[in-house]
Write the structure tokens for this entry.
Amino acid sequence: MNKTLISIVSVVLLLIVVIIVSATTGSIKVGSWELIEGLISGTNKKVQVIKDLRMPRIIIAMFVGAALAVSGVLLQAVMRSSLADSGVIGIASGAGFISILIVTLFPALFYWMPLFAFLGGALACFLVYSFSWKGGLSPMRIIVVGIAINATFSGLGQSFNYRGSYAVTTVNPVTTSVFTMKTWNDVQVMVIYGTIGLLLAFLLYSWCNLLSLQDKSAKNLGLHVNRARLLVSIVAVLLAAVATAIGGLIAFVGLLIPHIARLLVGSDHKVLIPFSALAGALLILSADTLGRTLLAPTEIPASIILAVIGGPFLIFLLRKSDRIYGN
């Protein structure tokens, strides 16, 4: 059994274990067999409460993690930088700000929030790409420009939190990353858009492999570089936007997971993309479960746990980016 297969099997098994732990622990505790029997029979009242309140949270956490991780993989292929991540370079904050802006001005459009998040993420991605380009893309320029764009959109978004309107209170989870009180309607939106984005990402794996090369080399291999870069970026923004619209702002997933995944399964995106999706799901669900149970009944948002982990990791990548991508 080779390293790649061992890594995939290990992540799948760990994900199953964390799903069971997350579903059975908390203010309402049930055994694993009691949970399974209750889901099948539909007669156990405790299991029905878990089904209505805890299961949507688990599913959304997994899809958000998968979407953010794969978005990071795609952005790193497009920008040829291990520092590219939707949270760090402002795509998530752009998505959050436009969502808040539109819903504040037009509260009736609340259910179109994923679309507005996509438009905001696309705007942020365009700004980062435009301002970072100077005869090529430098990892350091990407991160510096991205931090500036992120700070700008985050500041604009936070300014709306002090307006006190009902619309802002309603959309506030976009900026606070809280998985509580998620419903099956939220699951439906996340699963539909997330699945579409993840499938499109996998279909583009060959382009991602070529985009990781220098532009000249990719062109010599028959790739229309600009078109491929645009389409891959659109899919990356879609994944980051829907994750932000439903799960809130969570940074560093697209930094942590792709880097670890490359060490475990290599750089072939045919394997890297699905493995990153599984690992991202595992990371976010683990962080959310830990935050929910560590200081119960007080909850620590998953975004805070990941910020504590991701900050030092970003510093590590800044120091090692030259070695990782040869820039």
